[in-house]
Design a protein that fits this description.
This protein folds into 2 domains: 250 residues, Alpha-Beta Barrel (TIM Barrel); 73 residues, Arc Repressor Mutant, subunit A (Orthogonal Bundle). The protein is built from 14 helices and 15 strands. A 9-stranded mixed sheet has the order 7-8-6-5-4-3-2-1-9, with helices on both faces. It is globular and about 55 Å long. The structure holds iron/sulfur cluster. Iron/sulfur cluster binds next to loops.
């Protein structure tokens, strides 16, 4: 089982917190599509004819693409790859792009799942984040998507936004639960270096992010979602049974995937590749794929670290038997030894030779994983 990720490098405007590669202009959109179609064909060998079970159009803002462009992308993918008839095909969409007409057109493309970037149902949070949409557009987009028959639907929310009180965060969770959607991704607002948000906070123009507020709101989220019957299947993801994101699950279970488009990453078990984060270079040099791609062969230590980091964040846990089989006894012994103090402190629990983060441990997921790392 393998996947394809396609990075669409355009947005209407840059959100202040965003560090994904995208340009706030559609000037080169047509050239990009032509280059992307070439790249799809040129890189077909990367997945060695593995069947594709998930395709994810992310970005950037893929909902800026017309149905016609999506159909052209689908045609070229189907011409070069074996796509499972029941493949999950997700489009990230921003609420301001979603209209009845656009959804109707999408229903006639290969897209069968929508991921809508809601972030908050409060206008003041959307202003802080510099999102282009409003709270009322957020509500409307979800209703329209459901009406159009997109039953595979997920939304993103962000917590830890300055001004987002715990009451407002609870209201956002309640709004999600009222909508009867089966999947939620929720992220803590992080201030990435070199973003507009980092700059504005350092100038004192924007209020800084409070980590304790984020931690409290993450706890609230876990409590509310669990009470509502959702499975916390990855640290930032909640789903009802049978509604896990196939694409994200592929990343978390070390499946192979091919990333297409500027800045997209690929992984095939032993190496990681990433495309240049520069649209002009991508378009101009697409004919020589090597010149737009960098590659890193992962060492056994890196592969072990990667496994620990991703598996520990999931409800499947970090499997000692897998570590022993894939990396050897030195690694499984090391992992057990490092994990012991977190078992004692109640941050980890061990069941059937697998480590799982406890409720308390989930608040420190990255720190605990890094203590189990080899490198
Ligand atoms: S819409 Fe998404 S990709 Fe575009 S700037 Fe905002 S967060 Fe970044």
């Amino acid at each position: 089982m393998a996947g394809i990720y396609i990075h669409i490098p355009f947005c209407r405007q840059k959100c202040h917190y965003c560090n994904f590669y995208s340009l706030a202009s559609l000037k080169y959109a047509d050239f990009f599509i032509e280059a992307l179609l070439q790249e799809i064909a040129l890189r077909k060998a990367y997945l060695s004819d593995e069947e594709i079970h998930t395709i994810y159009l992310g970005g950037g803002t893929p909902s800026l693409l017309s149905a016609d462009s999506l159909n052209r992308i689908a045609d070229v993918i189907h011409a070069h790859y074996l796509v499972h008839p029941d493949a999950e095909i997700t489009l990230e969409a921003n609420p301001d792009d979603i209209s009845k007409d656009y959804l109707h057109q999408l229903r006639h493309t290969f897209i069968n799942r929508l991921s809508i970037g809601i972030q908050s149902f409060f206008d003041e949070d959307l202003v802080y984040l510099h999102r282009v949409h409003t709270a009322s557009q957020a509500h409307q987009a979800i209703q329209l998507a459901k009406k159009a028959g997109f039953d595979k639907l997920t939304i993103d929310l962000i917590y830890g936004i300055p001004g987002l009180t715990d009451e407002k965060w609870e209201a956002n969770i309640a709004a999600f639960l009222d909508m009867d959607i089966h999947h939620l991704s929720a992220y803590a607002l992080t201030v990435e270096p070199h973003t507009a948000l980092a700059h504005l906070i350092s100038k004192g123009t924007m209020q800084a992010v409070d980590e304790q507020q984020s931690a409290n709101q993450f706890e609230l989220l876990m409590q509310r979602m669990e009470a509502a019957g959702f499975i916390h299947y990855e640290i930032s993801n909640f789903a009802r049974p049978g509604h896990y994101s196939r694409h994200n699950s592929l990343y978390w279970t070390a499946g192979n995937y091919l990333g297409l488009g500027p800045s997209a990453h690929s992984f095939n078990g032993y190496s990681r590749q990433w495309n240049v984060s520069n649209l002009k270079q991508y378009i101009e040099q697409i004919g020589q794929v090597e010149s737009i791609t960098e590659k890193e062969i992962l060492t056994i230590e890196q592969r072990y670290d990667e496994y620990v980091m991703t598996s520990l964040r999931t409800s499947w846990g970090c499997d000692l038997e897998h570590i022993q089989n894939a990396f050897g006894t030195t690694y499984s012994d090391y992992c057990s030894k490092q994990a012991e103090k977190y078992i004692q402190s109640g941050h980890l629990t061990k069941l059937q030779n697998r480590y799982f983060l406890t409720f308390k441990g989930k608040l420190f997921a990255d720190g605990i994983a890094s203590e189990l790392f080899m490198v």
